[in-house]
Amino acid sequence: MKTENIGFKNELSFVCALLTGVAESSQVYPRVTAEMLTSRELALIYKGIIELFNKGKAMDYTLLEHEMRALDHELYAEMNGLNYVGDGLLSVVDDVHVTTYADLIVEEYQRNSLRLLAMEISGKCGSRDIPVEQILQLANTKLEEIAGMGVNSTSTRQISEIGQEVVAHHTRLLENGGTSVGYSTGLKGMDNIMGGFMRGEVAIASALTSHGKTALSLHMAVQIALQNIPVYIISLEMSMEQLYGRILMSLSNVSPENLRMHGLTETEIAVAKSLNETTLRELPIYIDYIPSARPEDIRAKVKLARKRKQCDFLILDYINQLDLGNAHGENLATSLGHAMKRIKDLAVEENIPALVIAQMNREIEKRNDNYKHKLSDLRDSGVLEQAADVVYFINRPELQGNGKGDDGESLVGIGTINILKNRNGATGTTKFRYNTHMTRISDY
């Protein structure tokens, strides 16, 4: 065994405490990973210990050496197996200090990670080809990862603690006269079926082109924000100005043609100014336009928005525009599935609802079933549906030439929302009304 520095001595004492059995792997794993140990030899021993732990086997030197040989035969032979630790085992008396050793190992690993990150950021800052925004996002993501290294999990909680939070939530709901456990969608029919948007859940909204995916989602955003709930909208397609325009039109009689083509009249400018200084100033809606965003960019942005108290409800418009890359040779559907799973993990981790807008395929146009939706109508339906808690489709019958329903009712200005999946609740169909330009939406 080589002459050691203080860091090595900490690692040696840490590993020996586990070898002697006075400390259990569950006290430090998965908080400390093998990659955190600077000694290759001690890291190999620790990997072997974890292999035994994961297989449910008690500490046994013969079994441990077998695991070490299987992991790295050459290094095992070079270090002469467990003989490498020498007299280190004799210094272990109890497990009192094992968590202290673990703290020191994690801290040193974080310091090394920060040094490497500083070098990486410095190198990228020297290149004018890399946008500053991209460097900042990288730094924020990596710093978040480093800060989370070795943090003890807080996911395990006693059931009564969970119960107290649930009861408190329902008590607040009762006191405020609420009728929905989740965040109200602003449409009574939809709330009656699914109970609103639930924290920790991901809903997918889909429709054919120009059928109102974004319009309906923005209506919901405004209604949720009016409940004083911060809404964070990440747009991968529409600019901030376009989204502002849609929200402006949903709250006023500003002409879509004037806003998009001819220019606002003096009266409309006055209306926009008034809304900017009153309703919109108080409305907690935050918009971020991130073209070609990657899943990790979304995560970093949401984490930052949460810290700024700007995101209690997330809208992503839309997932098919994500830059999924192809670093591992995955096909598009697999990459999209991984991205959706990361969004679901983020919603659970931050305890917020997320509304994801997704494309439909065109198969429904080939069927002769009067545009009756199926989950398979969702583009890449399998990978998206698997992670989603709720999936609903939006339809405007008049766009397919259906001016009247089976009962003779006019379908002009009437849309349907077909909730086909609801992991924790009911499914069903509800209706809503909209104006000529689909800028204003209301209950049926």
From TrEMBL:
Taxonomic lineage from the root: unclassified sequences, metagenomes, ecological metagenomes
Gene Ontology terms: biological process: DNA replication
Protein name: DNA 5'-3' helicase
Enzyme class at the top of the EC tree: isomerase
InterPro entries assigned: DNA_heli_DnaB-like_N_sf, DNA_helicase_DnaB-like_C, DNA_helicase_DnaB-like_N, DNA_helicase_N/primase_C, P-loop_NTPase
Database matches in PANTHER family: REPLICATIVE DNA HELICASE, REPLICATIVE DNA HELICASE DNAB
Protein's UniProt keywords contain Cell inner membrane: no
Gene3D superfamilies reported for this sequence: DNAb Helicase, Chain A, P-loop containing nucleotide triphosphate hydrolases
Record-stated family: Belongs to the helicase family. DnaB subfamily.
PROSITE patterns to which the protein is assigned, alphabetical: SF4_HELICASE
Catalysed reactions, as listed in the record: ATP + H2O = ADP + phosphate + H(+)
One Pfam family here: DnaB
GO molecular function annotations of the record: 5'-3' DNA helicase activity; ATP binding; ATP hydrolysis activity; DNA binding
Keywords attached to this entry: ATP-binding, DNA replication, DNA-binding, Helicase, Hydrolase, Isomerase, Nucleotide-binding
Domain SF4 helicase: 176-444
Keyword Isomerase attributed: yes
Any Gene Ontology CC annotation: cytosol
EC number: 5.6.2.3
